[in-house]
Amino acid sequence: MAGVTTVYVFNGPNLNLLGTRRPEVYGTATLADVEALCREECAAAGMELDFRQSNHEGDLVDWIQEAGAAVKAGRAVGAVVNAGAYTHTSVALHDAIEGAELPVVEVHISNVHRREPFRHRSYLSPVAAGIVVGFGVRGYALAIRGLCPTS
Ligand code: DQA
User: Fold this and answer.
1) Would you tell me which of 37, 53, 72, 84 could form a disulfide with 11, CB atoms 3.0–4.6 Å apart?
2) What are the boundaries of each domain within the chain?
3) How far is the CA of 149 from the centre of ligand 1 (A)?
4) What was the pLDDT predicted at 3?
5) Residues enclosing ligand 1, CB less than 6 A?
6) What is the pTM of this model?
7) pLDDT tens-digit profile of 88-98?
């Protein structure tokens, strides 16, 4: 069950391979390292972390709906979402974020705009509260800061 002030972090396909997948693009940190840095950032902000990864689009849709309900119930502030390649293809994720009215910060480890043209389009950006692109895995910490209320 989500805590009073949960931050969700959702990771999409192939992000379970972080550390070994194209390290020249994504770096050498593993997904476990990313979870640890997110946990540290949340703890510093007095927030609880709910960190997940799936290779399946429907899981991400379900989690976005769940997180939207948690925000509406006052138990969460929103979600950091790195949807991986679904970023560039998924109307379903766009509709889920919009439909659930979930505050989302979209994250990409790499600068997608310096890469292949098919990575330049994001179906998430038009429904995201903010975007962090190209800062490596540190972008997750920046995105968490963006979601957390400032004192
Ligand atoms: C990514 C960029 C996407 O284009 C790619 O499909 C990924 C990772 C990133 O974090 O840089 O899987 O989202």
Assistant:
1) 53
2) 6-33+43-147
3) 27
4) 47
5) 14, 82, 84-85, 87, 108-110, 112, 119
6) 0.96
7) 999 999 999 99
Ligand 1, atom 12, lies closest to the CA of: 84
Digit-coded pLDDT (tens) for 9-53: 999 999 999 999 999 999 999 999 999 999 999 999 999 999 999
Q: Are 141 and 38 in contact (CB under 8 A)?
A: yes
Instruction: List, for residues 103-114, the tens digit of each pLDDT value.
Output: 999 999 999 999
113 is catalytic: no
- Terminal Cα distance for the chain, rounded: 26
**Is-catalytic flag, 26?**
yes
Ligand 1, atom 13, residue with closest C-alpha: 84
Distances (CA, A) of 117 to 27, 73, 76, 112, 147: 21, 39, 35, 9, 29
Domain 6-33+43-147 sits in which CATH superfamily? Dehydroquinase, class II (3.40.50.9100)
